[in-house]
Amino acid sequence: MYCGPMLRPLRILAGWLETMASMVSRSTVLRFLVVPALALPLAGCGVPLSAHWQGLPAKAPSEPGAAAESQDAPGAQEGPDCAEVKCVALTFDDGPGPYTESLLDVLDKHNAKASFFLIGKDVAKYPDIVREELASGHEIGNHTWSHQDLAKLSPAAAERELSKADEAIKKATGTAPTLMRPPYGTITESLTKAQPVPVVMWSDDTLDWKTRNAKKTVKAAEDIKPGSIVLMHDIHKSTIAAVPKILEDLGAQGYHFVTVSQLIGEPKPGVGYKTGQHPPTKD
Ligand SMILES: [Zn+2]
């Protein structure tokens, strides 16, 4: 089913709603007004994103001074220029959990930054660890309240899963998550567009959740390339055991370990990403 012509008037409606509700925060407007407005008429257009995504959105060649400007942009973070040097974003889903703290120690030891996609109901169990993640310079993303498949929920139920997790993270840290990742990597295009933060998938799945084997997780990480977004899970002991070797091996190859936002540069709300910036490849 092709739904393109419906999108333009809906975007105009979304823009109008946002303007009219300018007294309310952007996040609230997007979540509570724009999502139902977009999602309901488009319910029949719920195409899995994999059919639409192109990986990294088209990007203008970097200009001198761009880096300086980006310092002032919302969400901009300090770190290496991943368009010039080799970077990778290690991401950990489904935490926080009992092993997360030891992972934070390992990352600190290697001066590595990572991104954590958190389950809202577990944030309340480990608020100190979530605060420590932020304090250590890692990035935090919403991974729903209870790990539901958003593509299978009604728009209202999907929004509840996301907003409850947002609230839990805000309560623990005082700040809202800056990224979102849907469980199982499944989300409709309309829900992606309605998100107040970038939607982050991955380029490299270590399958740590399946193998539960540190050696196999290390082996899977050998496929990492500059610009990779790597999927792991900090709820498995075997994953934590694999991370020191992954950091050593990639560190020896000159990789910088950065957050997803640092890897992408300036990720945009409502846009899906699978990879980030990398230095020009030499033929
Ligand atoms: Zn997950």
Bound heterogens, unique: zinc ion
Tell me, briefly, the overall form: globular
Q: Biggest sheet, open or closed, and with what strands and sense?
A: 7 strands, parallel
Gyration radius from CA atoms, angstroms: 19 Å
Tell me, rounded to a whole number, the average pLDDT: 81
**Helical element count?**
12
Proportion of residues in extended strands: 5-15%
From the helix content, strand content and strand pairing, which structural class follows?
alpha/beta
The CATH level-2 architecture of the largest domain is identified as Alpha-Beta Barrel
Termini distance? 41 Å
Order of helices and strands: HHHEHEHHEHEHEEHHEHEHE
Query: How is the CATH topology of the largest domain named?
Result: TIM Barrel
- Tally of separate domains: 2
CATH superfamily of the largest domain: Glycoside hydrolase/deacetylase
